[in-house]
Design the sequence.
């Protein structure tokens, strides 16, 4: 049995996290939260891409109020991200936040922690607490001789106790490091010491290229070990890319089904079409289809059909015209410039 099968179930809006529930995909808006129009537009795009929980920063009263407006127009739970000011946590909860992410260690003392926990309790709002490698307390850096997995775990569990002391247990823990191996080790240690659900991610992972690799490695290893109940891929880029990556990590680990998987050939001297451009277009186009199938995009008619055997549908390029393939069998020839639309038509009429 995986660790995640026996973590506590915490409910964020209509999404259950932990206890073997499907691993929820999260992202964060990068609009100004007080700009309701822009924030709603971004969240709706993220919903369409497959985001299941969204987080937005609440740095001021205006943003807290905006949260209430945003919530009316979206369909997924919204988590308020709070830094330092406990009054923003109270305002966010008042305005309907489905969860808050807060560091109880830096909001100014026991009274304030109690005020926030009491409000969270009253409104059944879970709290995400934890630590990022960049914000590990000085005393723990000194105690462990640097930012270590042991220090991160101790810090996270300290924060958990601060909330528990006030009698609340609707907690999700996150430990994030920008170093893959530190992050993996910290999760291995933490999973043995708690049954709260864990929010997994590699922090400040980087740009699309480096960030995707780091996230796939870090989140992938942790999930493979049976740890982690919800994930966020952090990228310096469009948050929709975070969702695409998260979905692919879950699908490749067979932790989620559904969604078209695209395979494409690496191209070689035989390729006579813009295979790379075509594969990218196909990858974008298939995102809206929920079918649990494989689509292959191959560069040539010589090896393409054979290599596409594993796929449910394939297209193979040629010189001026290409092929439509199903389960390795050539169905018909298609003019090269129609390969994408023919594939789309097949998917529109796919009998799942
Ligand atoms: S499918 Fe054709 S073009 Fe693509 S790598 Fe194989 S031989 Fe080359």
Sequence:
């Amino acid at each position: 049995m995986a660790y995640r099968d026996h973590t506590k179930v915490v409910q964020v809006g209509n999404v259950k996290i932990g206890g073997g529930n499907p691993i929820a995909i999260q992202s964060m808006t990068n609009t100004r939260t007080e700009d309701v129009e822009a924030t709603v537009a971004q969240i709706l795009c993220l919903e369409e891409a497959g985001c299941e929980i969204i987080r937005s920063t609440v740095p001021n009263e205006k943003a807290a109020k905006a949260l209430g407006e945003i919530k009316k127009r979206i369909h997924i739970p919204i988590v308020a991200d709070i830094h330092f000011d406990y009054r923003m946590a109270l305002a966010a909860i008042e305005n309907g936040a489905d969860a808050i992410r807060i560091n109880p260690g830096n909001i100014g003392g026991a009274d304030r922690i109690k005020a926030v926990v009491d409000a969270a309790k009253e409104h059944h709002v879970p709290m995400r607490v934890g630590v990022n490698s960049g914000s590990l307390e000085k005393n723990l850096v000194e105690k462990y001789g640097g930012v270590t997995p042991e220090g991160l775990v101790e810090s996270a569990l300290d924060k958990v106790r601060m909330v528990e002391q006030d009698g609340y247990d609707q907690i999700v823990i996150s430990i994030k490091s920008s170093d893959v191996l530190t992050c993996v080790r910290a999760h291995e240690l933490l999973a043995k010491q708690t049954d709260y659900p864990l929010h997994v991610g590699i922090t400040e992972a980087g740009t699309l290229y480096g960030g995707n690799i780091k996230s796939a490695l870090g989140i992938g290893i942790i999930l493979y070990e049976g740890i982690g109940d919800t994930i966020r891929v952090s990228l310096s880029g469009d948050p929709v890319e975070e969702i695409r990556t998260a979905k692919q990590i879950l699908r490749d680990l067979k932790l989620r089904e559904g969604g078209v998987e695209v395979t494409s050939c690496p191209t070689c001297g035989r390729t006579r079409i813009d295979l790379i451009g075509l594969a990218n277009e196909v990858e974008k186009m298939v995102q809206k289809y929920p079918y649990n199938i494989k689509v292959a995009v191959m560069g040539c008619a010589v090896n393409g059909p054979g290599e596409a055997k594993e796929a449910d549908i394939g297209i193979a390029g040629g010189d001026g015209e290409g092929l439509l393939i199903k389960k390795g069998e050539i169905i018909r020839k298609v003019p090269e410039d129609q390969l994408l639309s023919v594939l789309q038509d097949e998917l529109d009429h796919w009998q799942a």
